[in-house]
Here is the input.
Amino acid sequence: MQSPVAKAGRGGRALQVVSALRNRNYRIYWLGFLSSIIGWQIQTVGIAFFVFEKTGSELSLGIVSGSQAGAGILFSVLGGVIADRVERRRLLIIAQVGALSCTLTLATLVAVDVVQIWQIAAIAFVFGAFQAFDQPSRAALVPQLVDRKDLTNAVALTSAVYQASAIIGPSFAGLLIAFASVSVMFYVAAFGFVGFMVALIFVRVSPPVPRPGPAPARRGIGTDLLAGLAYIRRRSLFTALISLAFLNALFGLSFIVLLPAFAKEELAVGAQGFGLLVTAIGIGALAGTLIVAALGEFSRKGLLILGGAVLFGVLLILFSLSSWLAVSLGLLVAIGLVRSLYMTSAMTLLQLRVDDAYRGRVTAVYGLQWSLMPLGGLQAGLIAEAWGAPVAVAFGGGAVVFFTLLVGLRQRELRQPLAPAPD
Here is the structure.
């Protein structure tokens, strides 16, 4: 029989995984955020399936993804500047209203059977513009909802929302497509954004602790934008982390855009198999995020980030070679786990090191990866159209390995134990 002390130790470690949820405001925010991201996942999966079903073209998938990417690239940094100038909670509510409007419009167009691919691309562009203001506001708001000692755990749990929704969302989307309709699926997705809006109304945000000395003078938006970019450039650790995030989005995660083609043509498993493929990624990613949440602070984050990125690229190459469903599912679980380990560690490190006055702008630049991911889908779609989806995924995996090794050689700070974050 185990002693009460041993049982208490196990219980303490279990609670450490979710320690940030002890903060009331973060707990309400987290539940609302989960609702929003599940809606986003349902919409993303639904659009990919609907477009490929309607056109049978990988290029069409890339065009729709590229439209959303264009909006993110145009507006993300501006969104970060605004997030550093206004009340972030209100900005988030406005972004959710915009996302809700886009989803309801798409659902209605599909329901009345008048939707065209150019309309989907246009809606994706507008949705991407609202996301450009949503992402930096979310990332910059989280540190205002928790004690500093819980920040690492909060970042990991926020990332866990993406991973959990990647399991729930695609499965739910597949069920709605199979037993209801695509339009019903989009209407259901819209409820997710409503849930986040309601949660944000009940969140009480603590203002950031002001720095000693006189308050900085209000400057123009352009000046603030340039100041944020200069702040990033002066810190080699930030440039390395942002470079790896861009690399991951452009060449690594673009394989997700091609999953419908793998499901239909390479593995011949149809819509239900497609849901299984996406769910496998989510299972692995959720496991990886919870590992980071349990680990907390450790000094070898840099090596974990570099090693994880290289392994991620190798696993993508192996996935591109697989023609068996069981093997592909196993590889996707591993891909999700490894990517989550190194990307969650990177975001945690960034949040711990950045000054709050620049948090919106830095996280906006870092968050450009989500805009570059659809752009990466465009390049993957072009390669897949010419040489097939497996070649496109293998090329992306090879690029991830090559450029990660290059970043690791150039950025010595990531290869060494990291100093504790300043208070």
In short: The mean pLDDT is 80. The chain has one domain: 19-204+233-415. The longest helix spans residues 24-55.
